[in-house]
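[Help] Beginner question about ligand-bound structures

Sorry if this is basic. My supervisor gave me a protein sequence and a SMILES string for adenosine-5'-triphosphate and asked me to "get the holo structure". I don't really know what that means in practice or what format the answer should be in. Inputs are pasted below exactly as I got them.
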Amino acid sequence: MNTTLPDNTKIRVADLNFFYRERRILQDLTVHFAEHSITALIGPSGAGKSTFLITLNRLWENLPEARMSGKVEITLGGLRRDIYQEAFPVTELRRRVGMVFQTPNPLPMSIYKNVAFPLKMAGGTDQKEMRRKVEQTLKMAYLWEEVKDRMNDDARKLSGGQQQRLCIARALILEPEVLLMDEPTSSLDSTATEVIEGLLLELRKHMTILVVSHYLDQVKRVADRVVSFEEGAIVSS
Ligand SMILES: Nc1ncnc2c1ncn2[C@@H]1O[C@H](COP(=O)(O)OP(=O)(O)OP(=O)(O)O)[C@@H](O)[C@H]1O
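Answer (accepted):
No worries, everyone starts somewhere. Holo just means with the ligand present. The predicted complex, written as structure tokens, is below.
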């Protein structure tokens, strides 16, 4: 792997190929991403953008007949880690590399429990600290003021924009170093979109963000860099 990349390189992908059965979905991708940056992944439908994202958190591993070759290294906790090395636990990867999907997917539970859920799963946090973190994270996601008096309400009662900010809060509570976002505003109106774009710019101070977007005006507003996919290959970056 190229060792002459700049010191602030957060993610290094080398010779990545991805297949469903015999069909090659990603082709020989070699690309790297700097920390504290927002990269927009663009390209036509079916070009492989979402598939690329899930190679960065190993989310594809349970999909039938999917396989991958190549190397993905992410600097986590200050150490460069090969995320596909057997010794590297997927639980640690998912803690440090968060993901937000196109359609908000609140769990069938209260607003509070939705945000606290990953922390609870990770274990070892007392109730007081959990409450503090839930509040802090909801503030970061610009949702606190709207939900602070209804934390026990079912999260599915929230509007689409609020649900997406809730999912972002849920992704943020473990303080990830990388945030993968797959068309996070595509189901939202322009006001909710504006809020989330502002949030991305704020989050960039703390993390490295890769965002799939179909909206060129959005890409212009938020992205430091644009990587274009076509038929599973990167055609410009
Ligand atoms: N689970 C799967 N099994 C088989 N093929 C799949 C699976 N998921 C995706 N594909 C195929 O992989 C290719 C790349 O899909 P992917 O979703 O990564 O593209 P995309 O660029 O993100 O598209 P879009 O912008 O529409 O979300 C597509 O041809 C798709 O049909």
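A couple of things worth pointing out: Residues 9-236 form a domain with the Rossmann fold fold (CATH 3.40.50.300). The chain has one domain: 9-236. Feel free to follow up in the thread.
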